[in-house]
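Could you join me in thinking about how sequence relates to backbone shape in a protein? Would you write everything just below, so we can both look at the same thing?
***
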Amino acid sequence: MYLEPTIQRNKKRRSSPVRVLFLLILIGIGIYVYILVNQEHVESPFVPTPTPTRTAFSYITAANDLYLQGRLTETIAAYQQAISLEPDNALPYIPLARLLILDGQIDAAIQHAQQATEIAPQHAAAWAILGMAYDWNGDISQAIETCQHAIELDPTYAEGYAYLAEAYVDAGQWAKANQTIQTALQLDDRSADVHRNHGYVLEIQGNYWQALAAYERALEINPHLAHIHLSVGRNYRRLGDLNATIASFKRAIEINPDNAQGHFELGWTYLTYLGDYNQADAALTRAVEANPQFGRAFGGLAIGYWQRRNYEDAIINFERAIHWDSADARKRARTFYVTVEDASRDGLEPSTQVVLRGDFAPLTGGNPATLQASLTPQALLDDAWTNASGQVILEPRTGAYTVTLSGLPRLEAGRVYAGWFGGVNTLSGYPVNTGPLPRTADGSVATTLETGWVRGPAIDYFYTLGLAYYFKNECDKAYPLFEAALQINPEETNALEGIRMCRQLE
């Protein structure tokens, strides 16, 4: 049986006086809190709870973990974050400088290593990594001196000896290199860097099998180091094991897909050892995508195009290779100095009478790729140049540079001032120089010049580019390139033959 529900009718209830009073009190409290919040005396309860700000130490810890995983780009970014939070803490500068070296960013590495030595001048690791940066930049004598200073600060620092051994072997001082790397191994047999440098010392001396053993020992300590896989690949290539070579290079790229050097090595192997143009083009293209200023990768592409008689693309890439390799060579400028010269001399080499000198460093407050040297008087027999000073600004990409001098005294007849670059040479191998400087009546100089082509690009880039222009019937562009190759080697047969063939077309 279905029963209808009973309908309950609500009865009207009267509010309790106590309840009304309680509600009024709550409303009053709410109004009071609202006023305080607006006046910023208390924080709104509806604002999300703030999370702790990340510390520099946390970024350093994260960077260490990322490095062990081989994630180089992310490791560099983590160290840079740590520095942005604590710019006066030397700790992140040192590993960051090392990773920048391995990533090919030598200028930035030198800058960060120098900052580390300024922040912590007694820190052996800071000086050691600065020495490594100098060595990789081609300034070997300064690298040796800097690493020796690191060892003086801490005679038990194994990596200091390892980097010193690397510089010694680059200087051709093999006995010292062998002795020094053994000291590093005795101090720390668990350092991947020590074993990498041991492998490098052996490799430079042509002991490829033992070099491989040293590199493999480093990879046992950390198997995710792309730069060591590259070293392994190069040694296998020298020993003729191309399968192991390619596998090593591919492993380096797998660890660090942005590794331009890895793509280049793989492409160069396909091009020059296997003749596989498709694989070579693909790898070398990835190399220049990863590093658009990679001169050798452009050179590899150019050689591949040249071999297939694709002269148009060969020309484009040879010109890029020469441009960027020249820029890299100009980046190695170390010093600029002003001398007093006999106006009748040919000016190929500087005299010993140096009146002003300065070291190049990244431009302060400007583009870090631009180099600047502030010139100061040198010790002389008299005080004639005490008030002289100057500045040189060099643009490595273009070779343009400005020289601004003041306070130069008048010279006797037949004598002129000239400026010289230390660390940058002409194609003939002599120091790049300004020629006679145009001193004005008030003893000042203000001039803008260009270095032109400098010693750095491979000689075959010049004469092969010249031959490509020859085959396009453009000998007016070919002649300067053949002459450039002959400045590097006056007996270069390809350049001489190119000139002969061009003359036959006239």
User: Anything to note?
Assistant: The CA atoms of residues 102 and 227 lie 7 Å apart. Confidence is low (pLDDT under 50) at residues 1-15, 18-26, 31-37, 40-49.
